[in-house]
Amino acid sequence: MIAGVAITSFFLFFNISAKLPIITFATESIASRFLKVFWILILVPVGTFLAMYFYPSLEKRAVEAKINQELPFATIHMAAISGSMIDPSKIFTIIITTEEYPALSKEFTKLLNQINVYGYDLVGGLRNMAFNSQSRKLADLFNSLATAITSGGDLPDFFDKRANSLLFEHKLEKEKQAKIAETFMDIYISVVIAAPMILMLLLMMLKIGGLGIGLSSGAITITMILGVIVINIFFLTFLHLKQPGE
Q1: Cβ 158 vs Cβ 151: under 8 Å
Q2: Which of helix, strand or coil describes residue 25?
Q3: Cα dihedral 129, 133, 135, 141 in deg (nearest 10)
Q4: Considering only CA atoms, which of 103, 101, 65, 106 is closest in space to residue 81?
Q5: Residue 219 contacts by C-beta under 8 Å, 6 or more apart in sequence?
Q6: pLDDT tens digits for 28-38?
Q7: What's the pLDDT tens digit per position in 123-167?
Q8: Which among 23, 53, 190, 223 is most buried, taking Cβ atoms within 10 Å?
Q9: φ, ψ for residue 245, nearest 5 deg
Q10: Hey, which residues does 16 pair with through a beta bridge?
Q11: Cα separation of 190 and 180, whole Å?
Q12: Measured between alpha carbons, how far is 192 from 79 in angstroms, rounded to an integer?
C-alpha cells in the first residue's frame, strides 16, 4: 500500500516519456491526473498480495524439481550402499555426508530427525516423510521402502529396480524438455529477430509518411532495443525454469 501511494503520488505531478527530458512536470489538473493513475493505488497492493499468495506453491514446485533431479542418481548410490547389508538408516547418513545431493540431503536430515529426535522407528519416519514430502516421487520411494523393510524384502534389489525406473522417467523428462526448448527456439527466432525488424521498418515508414507517429527515429530505435531486451529476459527466465540444472 505504501509503495502504491508513493507511485501514485509521483504520477500525480510528473510525466514519463521516451523523449528527453524523460521526467517532466504534469500540466493537467490534480483531479484529471488522479482519474488516470488511481488504478496504480489498487494494482500494486493486489499484485503484491497475489505474489505472496502464490509464492509458497511456486517454492514447493522449485524444491520438488530439485529433488526429482537428484533422486535417480541418489537411488543408484543407495543401491550400491545397501549391498553392504548395513542398517537401512545408515544409508541416508552416508548420502548426506557425500554432499552431492543438497536438496535430498535436507529431506534425509528431516528423516533422521524423525528417528533420532522424535523417537520414531525407521518405518514410521519414512511414512511421516512420505506424507509431508514436496515430491511425489520421493514420497513413493519412502512408502515403498517402508513396505520393503516391513515385509523383509531385498533392499539392494529394491533400490536397483527403483533406480532403473527413475532413470527411465528422467530420460523421458529430458527428452520432453529438449523438444520444448526446440519449439521455443523457433518462436524466439520469429519473435526476437524477424518481428522487431518488421515493426521498426513499419514505424519508420509511418513516421516518414507523416501518419501520426510522434516518436523520433532515436526513440523508435530505443523502444525496439528495450523490447528485444524484455523478450530476451522472458525467454531466458522461461528456459531456466524449464531446464533445471544437472
Answers
A1: no
A2: strand
A3: 10
A4: 101
A5: 18, 19
A6: 888 888 888 88
A7: 999 999 999 888 999 999 999 999 998 888 888 899 899 999 999
A8: 223
A9: -65, 155
A10: 23
A11: 16
A12: 47
**Full-model pTM:** 0.66
Q: At residue 81, what is the residue type?
A: I
Interior angle at CA 100, CA 97 and CA 103, nearest 5: 95
Q: What is the pLDDT of residues 6-16, one digit of tens each?
A: 988 888 888 88
Residue 94, amino acid: I
- Amino acid making up residue 76: I
Q: Compute the distance between CA of residue 233 and CA of residue 235 in angstroms, rounded to an integer.
A: 6
Phi, psi of 93 (to 5 degrees): -65, -45
CB-based contact 196:115 (threshold 8 Å): no
> What are the helix and strand counts (H, E) for the chain?
9, 2
For the record, the C-alpha cell of 62 comes out as 522449485
Q: Which three cell numbers stand for residue 196?
A: 522487431
What are the residues facing 24 on neighbouring strands?
A: 15
Place of cell 528485444: 228
